[in-house]
Write a structure and sequence with these properties.
- 4 copies of one chain form a homotetramer.
- In chain A, 45% of the residues lie in helices and 17% in strands.
- By secondary structure, chain A is of the alpha/beta class.
- The first copy, chain A, folds into 2 domains: 12-76 and 195-240, 3-Layer(aba) Sandwich (Rossmann fold); 79-188, Rossmann fold (3-Layer(aba) Sandwich).
- A 4-stranded mixed sheet of chain A has the order 1-2-7-8, with helices on both faces. A 4-stranded parallel sheet of chain A has the order 4-5-3-6, sandwiched between helices.
- The first copy, chain A, starts with 16 loop residues before the first helix and ends with a helix.
- The A-B interface holds A 1-4, 10, 84, 88, 90-99, 103, 182, 184-185, 187-193 and B 1-4, 10, 84, 88, 90-99, 103, 182-185, 187-193.
Chain lengths: 258, 258, 258, 258
C-alpha cells in the first residue's frame, strides 16, 4: 500500500509555523526519541521544518514512486511503479501493434520525469516526454512520420503527466501525422499493488540503516542508496538540492527504439 | 493479443455492397469452403452481409471484451478483460483507502455495461454506472454522502465509458459531496495481455465447435456458451437481437457494497 | 487466502461422535441460528454429522481448489488455482521449448483430476494424467515418441498428484523415450494468492444464496452453480454422491495438443 | 524466454578441443567480426576457450538467474527470477499462516546461494540455507522451536537446491521440532516468464555496451554492472575468479525475520 507519513501527511495545519510547533510539542510531551519520516520531497521539507523545533532525532526514508529525492539513486516504491506501468504498456502494445495505432501513455510525474524515463527505456518507447526537456512537438511528428515511412505504424509515446495536457498532445499528433492516436493514462494503480522484490528489499535495508542511525543518536539524516551501497546524507542537503535526470539516457532511448 | 478478423477488420470498403461482393468473389476464386469469423457484434453483421453473397460456410466465434453478442453467455476475452480491470482496481483501492478518496474508474464499454457490471460486482464497487440504466447523479451523491456519514470516506465508482464524460462526472461528485474524487481510466490494457485460463479454454471449445460445424457442412451459425454448455445459434438471430443486461445484478451489487 | 472452516477445521476431536456432540452443544449454548460451512467434501461430511445433533440451520458453501463437490459445477477457488497453475506452466513452457525438454508438471489433486484436467486443457498439454483414468505409461511413451518423430521435442505433461510418484514417472519417461525430462511441482501456491474475478464473484453469489436460505429458515443445503445459475441442493445428497469427471474432455485435450 | 547462447549451447562437442577449433573455423569461414556470448559462468568459460583459437572479437553479456558471474553486481534475469520466487512464496505464505505450517521452499541454485539469499531477505524468511554456508540443522531446529515458543507456528525456510535433499531436510525438521512441515519446489518457472523492468533495462544497457566494445575493436571482455554503473572487465578475469556471497546479509535476514 502507498504508505502515508506519520503525523505530517495530509495535514494542512502542519504547513504553518504553528502547526510545526504543535507537532514538536507533541513529540516532547510523548518523549519521542526518534522519528522516521517515510516519504518524498515534500515530507522531507516538513521534516526539516520540524527538526528546527525539536530535539527528537529525525531520519528520512525516501519512499515515493517519483524517485525525486536528492542524494539517493532510488526510492522505495519506484521499482514497483515502473513495473506496474511496464506491465500495462505490454498489454497496450498488443492493441497498438494489431491495430497499427500510436499510443500516448501518460505515467505519473507532475514535476519530474524519472518514472517516465525508466518506463520508456524499458518498453522501448518510440518517444519519451519528460518535464525536464522542452516539449518539441515537431520532433515528435518527425519520429512518427519516419517510423510510418519505414512501415512501422504502431508506436508508444511515454509522457510524464507534467509535460502538459496529454489529451491535446495525442490530438495534435493525430492531426499532424495522419496516425491513429489513442491516449492511455496509467494512473493511480502505479501507487498501489504488491511491491516488487527490489522495493521490499530496499525498504528493509533503508529501515535497518534508519534504526542504526537513531540508536546511535544520529538525526537529521536521510538514508540513501548510492552506487549500490546503503548510506545516509544530511536532511538539509537532501532538501536544498534537486536531483538531476540523466539526459544521456534519453539519447539511449532513441537508439533502443530504432 | 486482441485478434483481428480475417478479411473484414478495419476495411472501410467492406462496409459498402461493392466491398462485400468483392470479398465474396475472393472467397469463390480461392475455393474457400469455410470461413470462421472471430469478433463481436460488428464483425457478425459484416459476416451476415457476406453470407448473402457467397456459398462459403460462415461460422462466427464470439470474441470481444464487451460480451455483447446475443445468444452466448460469454465471449472469448471477456474474463481476461474483467480480471485486468479488477487487478488495476485492487491497486487503486490501496490509494483510495490510505488517502480517503473516491475513485471514478472508467472501464471499456461504449454502448454496453457487461464489463462494468462484472468488474463492479467483483471489486464490491460502491456505485456501478452502465449505459443501460439512466444516469442518476442525485443517487450517486446520496450513496457517497451516506457512506461518508458512516465513516467510509473512500469508494470505487465503476463507470462504463458509454455513460458520459467521466471527467465531468468525477468533478460533479466532488462538488456535490465534498469528497476528494479522482478519475482513473483503465483503457486499452483491457484488450491485451495474456489470456486467463477461462478465456483460453472457451476459445478452444468454441474453435472445436466451429470446426465441427464447418466439417459437417453447416454454415450461418454462431458458436455459443449457454448455461455452461457449448452450442450454436443462427447467425441471423444473433445479429437481429440485443443481449440483455441482468439488472438484478445491479441490485446485488448494492447489497455487496454495504 | 485459503479459508478454514469455522469450528470444524483441523480439529481431530471433531472426527469423534463426542466431538460432534460437543460442537452441537456449543451451538445451542450460544443460540446460533445458522451456520455457514465453507469448504469441500470433508467439511460437508462433518457438517452432515453435526446436522444430526443440532437444530442450527446449516448451509454449505463449496470452496475448494479441488472442485470435487457433488452438485455444483464449480467451487470457489477453483478458477484461481487453475490460473495460478497455468501462469506457472506458461513460464515453464519457455524453458521446455528453448531447451527441448519434456516437463512433468504435478498439480494438486490427491483423489480427483478436475484441476489437472482444466489446467492441461488450458495449456494444451501433450498428456494429462488424472486419478480417474488408469495410468497407461506405454501410451505416454508413445505420445512423446510420436511428437519427437514429428520434430516436437518439448512437451508438457500435467499430472494430478494422485496418479502416483511423479518423480518416478518422469524418470520412466526419460528412460523409455530418450527425451530429456524434468519434474516441476506447482505446489501450495495453488491454494493462495489474490483470487480471480470469477472466484470472487462466485463467492459473492454463493454468500447471497446461503444468507437467503438461512433467513428463510432453510437448512441442510449446499449452495451450488448449475448450468450458469445459482441454486442449492441437499447437504445429504452432496455428501452421498461423487462428482464425475467429464472424460470427453480428455479426448478433446488430445485434439487440442496435436 | 531463457536464452540460449549462439553456437555454444547444449553442444557437447564444444567441450572438446576439436569442437572449439571447429567453432573457430566456422567463425573465420563466415568472416564473423564480433561474437556476443550471452550466458553465465559456463558459457564464458567456453567463450574463453574459443577466444584462444580465433581473431573474432568476443564480448560476454552476463545473463543467468544464478547471478554468479564474477565482476558484475547483477546479471540479466536475476531480478526476474527473484520476483517470480517471491510472488510464489507470497501465495505459499497464505497457507503457511492459515494452517500454521512451516514451508521449506527450494529455489534454484545448485552451487550458489545468490538467488536464495535475495529471495529469503525479500520475503522475510525465518531461515535461509545457501551452499556457501555449512548446513547446521541444529540451528534450524532451534529457530523453529523458539518461534513456536513465541506463538509463531508458521514459517518460511528458503533453501537453494544446492544445500542438499530438501525433502529430507523438511522431514528432519518435522521430526525434530514437532512442526507440521511441507516442501515446495519453485522450479523452472524461475527461468521463464515476462522479464521485470530491471532485467529488461539491464539487458538494453549491457547490449549497448557490448556493441560499443565490438565497434571499437575491443574483445575478450565481459560487460558488467558495478556500483550502479555499466562497465566491462576482462573475460579471463571473470572466468578465473569466483563471486563472493555477501554473508553480512545472512545476518540482516535474521534481524528482519524476528
Amino acid at each position: 500500500m502507498g504508505g502515508t507519513i506519520l503525523l505530517t501527511s495530509r495535514c494542512p495545519e502542519f504547513k504553518t509555523p504553528e502547526g510545526v510547533r504543535k507537532a514538536a510539542q507533541n513529540l516532547a510531551a510523548n518523549h519521542v526519541d526518534g522519528l522516521v519520516v517515510i516519504g518524498g520531497d515534500g515530507s522531507f521539507r516538513g521534516a526539516l521544518e520540524l527538526s528546527r523545533e525539536t530535539d527528537t532525532l529525525i531520519v528520512g526514508v525516501p519512499a515515493t514512486i517519483d524517485n525525486d529525492v536528492y542524494g539517493t539513486d532510488e526510492t522505495v516504491g519506484f521499482d514497483t511503479a515502473v513495473n506496474t506501468a511496464v506491465a500495462e504498456i505490454d498489454k497496450i502494445r498488443d492493441t497498438a501493434v494489431s491495430h497499427e495505432r500510436v499510443f500516448v501513455v501518460e505515467v505519473m510525474g507532475r514535476r519530474r520525469g524519472f518514472l517516465a524515463l525508466a518506463v520508456g527505456l524499458t518498453v522501448g518507447a518510440e518517444v519519451i516526454l519528460v518535464p525536464e526537456a522542452p516539449l518539441n512537438m515537431e520532433e515528435v511528428y518527425k519520429t512518427i512520420r519516419e517510423n510510418a515511412a519505414k512501415g512501422k505504424r504502431s508506436g508508444i509515446i511515454v509522457a510524464a503527466e507534467g509535460v502538459g495536457d496529454t489529451r491535446k498532445i495525442a490530438r495534435q499528433i493525430e492531426e499532424n501525422t495522419g496516425a491513429e492516436v489513442r491516449l492511455s493514462i496509467v494512473g493511480y494503480a502505479q501507487r498501489g499493488g504488491s511491491p516488487t522484490a527490489r522495493s521490499r528489499l530496499l525498504a528493509s535495508l533503508f529501515a535497518e540503516e534508519a534504526i542504526r542511525l537513531i540508536t546511535q543518536g544520529v538525526g537529521n539524516r536521510v538514508v540513501a542508496l548510492q552506487k549500490g551501497t546503503i548510506t545516509n546524507i544530511s536532511l538539509q542537503e537532501s532538501c536544498k538540492n534537486q536531483k538531476q535526470l540523466d539526459t544521456r539516457l534519453l539519447e539511449l532511448a532513441k537508439t533502443l527504439a530504432t
